[in-house]
Every structure is written in C-alpha cells, then in structure tokens.
Design goal:
Blueprint (H helix, E strand, L loop, with lengths): L8 E4 L5 E10 L3 H11 L4 E8 L4 H8 L6 E3 L5 H5 L7 E2 H5 L4 E4 L5 H12 L2 E4 L10 E3 L13 E4 L2 H17 L1 E11 L15 E2 L5 H9 L4 E9 L5 E9 L5 H10 L3 E4 L8 H10 L10 E4 L4 E3 L2 E8 L5 H12 L6 H12 L14
Parallel strand pairs: 2-3, 2-6, 3-4, 4-5, 6-7, 7-9, 8-9, 10-12, 14-15
Antiparallel strand pairs: 1-2, 10-13, 11-12, 13-17, 15-17, 16-17
GO molecular function: 4-hydroxy-tetrahydrodipicolinate reductase; NAD binding; NADP binding; oxidoreductase activity, acting on the aldehyde or oxo group of donors, NAD or NADP as acceptor
Protein name: Glyceraldehyde-3-phosphate dehydrogenase, type II
GO biological process, one term: glycolytic process
Length: about 375
C-alpha cells in the first residue's frame, strides 16, 4: 500500500486537548451508508469528509433537504446532471474523495465494493467492507469484540453481517466469561429492510439449507467454537430474532449468564413484562427515545428467554439489522488506523461517542 499522502488532521477536542482526527469517506449512501456517515460524524477523533452515491435516491434527496450536512461525491459512471438538475450540489467524483481521506467505509451494493477496492489499492487507501462482500475482499474478517487485535494495522477489513455481528456479541460475552464449546442457533430473519419493494410481498416463510452462513461465519471469527444453525425468512421488516443454545466448557447458570449480559454495553437486557414483546417493540422504543430513524445500536436480549436445559443454556436476542453493524465498523477504523491497540480501549471510545450503554443501571432490576 502507498502511504501516507497527508498527515492526520490535528484539532482540539471539547476538553481543549490536542487530538488527531482520521479522515473517513463513505461509499454508498443507502441503509448502512447513511448510518455509517452519522456514526463517524459523532466520533470526536474522526472527520467525515464526504459520501458517495450513484443517483439522487430518496436518501440523497433527504440529505439535500437537511441542508447537505455531508459533502456528496459521485460514484463511477454516475451522471452529474442527474443531481444538479434538481439542485443537489456535487463536490466531485469518488476519486476526488479518495484523495482526501485516510480510509473508506464501503457500503456499496454487494460486488461493487470489490470493484471499488481497485481504486483504493491504486491510491493507497485503506478500506472497510460490509457483510455483502465476499470474505476474499479483505485481509481480516472482523468483529470489534471477538477479534479486534487481528485488525490492527490491516489495510482491508470486512465486517460480519448484521445477524452475525449481534450473534457474536452474545457468544463472545459468554465465551470470555465461561468458555464456549458449541452453539446452535435458529434465525428468524426479516425478509427485507423497510422500503425494499423489490423483495416482493409474501405471506409465507422460507427455510434455508443448514448450516446458515451466520453459524459458519461465527466459526471463522471464533474458530475454537463449533456452531450450526437454521435460518427462516419471515415477511417482516423490523429486525431479526435469533434463538441460541450454548454449551459451555462447564455448565453456565442462568444467573451468571444474565449478569454478564447486563454488563455488556452493546447488549440491552429486557423482559416481556416490560413491554418488549417482539422485534417491533425495539423499533418503537428507538423511535420513542428519539433515535435517528428509530435506530438501536444494541442488540436486545430477553432475560425471560434464558433457560437452562441440562448442561446447556438457551436465550433469544433481537437484531436491529439496519444499525447493529455501525459500532463494529467504527471499531474497524480504530483497528486499521492503529488508533487504539486493544479491544477495550477501542470499543469504549466507540461506545462513548455513539452514546451506547447509557441506559445501563438506570432502571432497578426486577425478577425474571
């Protein structure tokens, strides 16, 4: 990789201390790209330089209506006139943006990121790809908690999918505390994101062949754990639910597991008695909290779903598919750019700037 065309920007933070900012670009301003842009903009030690897209989509139109808080650059093959004829200003091309940044977050449609990688290599720019790309696009298949150290200093990282990201949070939480040998999962998968009409409207469930890729991906990130799983597509849009059966190196008791889950900043422990009856409850709660787009960065875990069965423990988690990978992607920036050299420091900063875990300890604990 070529290096370093320009030094990182040095600025003062809110406390008056000097700090180095990493300059970040986002390719693809869709479901994930919008949220990546917002997430990076919230990091005090990063600067969002701009975003890239191909056409004046609804997301781009909304960006314009909000006053263009982020500079817009065109993807390769885009027509400048398609933006400018409706008044949307364009700063330049993706190549212009690449020349200004230290790292790109590529949230382009599956396959496009691999093509964009050629541009990143040519210009000596690091990049992080989302779960839709093939693993071969990256040096490391990355998760902010489970294998942060493997991403340090690497040029190209690839994030796990939304389901796998949330699943690994829970599995890693138990593995660090107790050790995990096996995990078996059933994924009740939303069929599409809100607004994805091209997916079709259905009144049926569809099952995939086992094992699901999420189980295989978990074993790639955490090779010491054996995993398998079944995935069922469901005609809903607000989040996935995963049931997990975990076999530890020794028996994991419900009380001990619950205590570990409650300590994890990216896991929100809830109960059905509180009103969290399903996937839509989390989406509504995010809206009630005033979160942008109703997003939740944390996975939800039902305390009253935790049961012991023999030497195994079972529980259910909710995956907010549109936002769950954002924290781990920002962790990836920290690793690739050598900003923090251990998982604890990196994830705690990401959590701080995104406001993750602020709810911990706010409510008195009830029985479950």
């Amino acid at each position: 990789m070529k290096k370093d065309k320009r030094p990182f920007e040095v600025t003062k933070n809110k406390g008056g201390c000097f700090m180095t900012k990493v300059r970040v670009g986002v390719a693809g301003y869709g479901t994930i790209g919008q949220r990546l842009a917002d997430g990076v903009a919230m990091q005090e030690d990063m600067e969002l330089v701009g975003v890239v897209d191909f056409a004046p989509t609804l997301a781009i139109r909304a960006l314009y209506e909000k006053g263009m808080p982020y500079d817009l650059y065109m993807a390769e093959g885009a027509e400048r006139s398609s933006f400018e004829e409706i008044g949307i200003p364009v700063k330049g091309t993706i190549n212009d943006l690449i020349d200004k940044v230290d790292i790109m977050l590529d949230a382009s449609p599956a396959g496009v990121g691999a093509k964009n990688k050629e541009l990143y290599i040519k210009e000596g720019i690091k990049a992080i790809f989302q779960g839709g790309e093939k693993n071969e696009v990256a040096d490391v298949f990355f998760h902010g908690y489970a294998n942060y150290e493997k991403g340090i200093g690497k040029d190209y990282l690839k994030l796990t999918s939304c389901n796998t990201t949330g699943l690994i949070r829970a599995a890693d939480c138990l593995d660090r505390a107790f050790g995990v040998d096996n995990i078996a999962i059933t994924i009740i998968r939303r069929v599409a994101d809100p607004g994805d009409y091209h997916r079709g409207l259905t009144d049926a469930l569809r099952i995939d062949k086992a094992p699901s890729h999420q189980a295989v991906d978990l074993m790639t990130i955490m090779p010491h754990i054996r995993a398998t799983g079944i995935l069922v597509h469901t005609p809903v849009t607000y989040g996935h639910i995963i049931t997990c059966v975990v076999h530890g190196k020794s028996k994991i008791e419900k009380k001990s597991a619950l205590a570990e889950f409650e300590k994890h900043p990216r896991i929100r422990v809830v109960t059905t008695d509180e009103g969290f009856l399903g996937n839509a409850s989390f989406f509504k709660y995010g809206r009630d909290l005033g979160h942008c787009r109703g997003d939740n960065y944390e996975i939800g875990l039902w305390a009253d779903s935790i049961v012991e069965i023999g030497d195994d423990i079972m529980f259910a988690i909710n995956i907010p598919q549109e936002a769950v990978t954002i924290p781990e992607t920002i962790d990836g920036i920290r690793a690739a750019m050598n900003m923090q050299l251990n998982m604890e420091d990196a994830t705690s900063l990401t959590n701080k700037y995104l406001g993750i875990g602020r709810f911990k300890g706010m409510f008195k604990k009830g029985k479950c």
